[in-house]
Design brief:
This protein is an all-alpha fold. The protein has a single domain, classed as Up-down Bundle (3 helical TM bundles of succinate and fumarate reductases). The longest helix is centred in the first third of the chain and has 30 residues.
Length: 151
């Protein structure tokens, strides 16, 4: 009777597929999800605390409130970080779901391509809105402008 031995690698060693070289992208993706998740919890709860608790609640959030907030570079960067991390974190999660459930290589390629385009376009548009938002545009009807705009 022949006995065959099976060797099981030590779980603490790094696994690499045959022929794989360089950076392990899935491990970096996994680490990014953990780090961005922690940062997003801090950013989102800070956002909710300032907007709802310190302010007048939902009724106090209007055009003038957002305009006043985005006049400060600190809040622009805060909201930009929330936008970028939220979209990249969510896009990475959807990418993982596509990899898990799309069995056809062509379908997987199309779905991930659409996902990447949607994430990039949304990040670009959101970034433009945050940094080009002007609550007091020149030449606007004064009665339509918020009260903090100089006449």
């Amino acid at each position: 009777m022949s006995t065959s031995t099976t060797s099981i690698p030590d779980p603490s060693t790094r696994y690499r597929r045959r022929g794989q070289r360089g950076v392990n992208a899935e491990m970096l993706s996994w680490m990014f999800m953990r780090a961005s998740g922690v940062l997003l919890v801090i950013l989102v709860f800070g956002h909710l605390f300032v907007n709802l608790w310190l302010g007048l609640g939902v009724k106090g959030i209007d055009f003038a409130f957002v305009g006043g907030k985005w006049a400060n570079p600190f809040w622009q960067v805060w909201d930009l970080l929330m936008l970028w991390l939220g979209l990249i974190h969510g896009g990475n999660g959807v990418r993982t779901i596509i990899n898990d459930y799309a069995r056809n290589d062509r379908l997987r390629l199309v779905l991930k391509g659409l996902l990447y385009v949607a994430v990039v376009v949304t990040i670009i548009l959101g970034t433009l809105v945050i940094f080009t938002f002007d609550p007091c545009p020149t030449g606007a009807e004064p009665s339509l402008l918020p009260s903090f705009c100089e006449g």
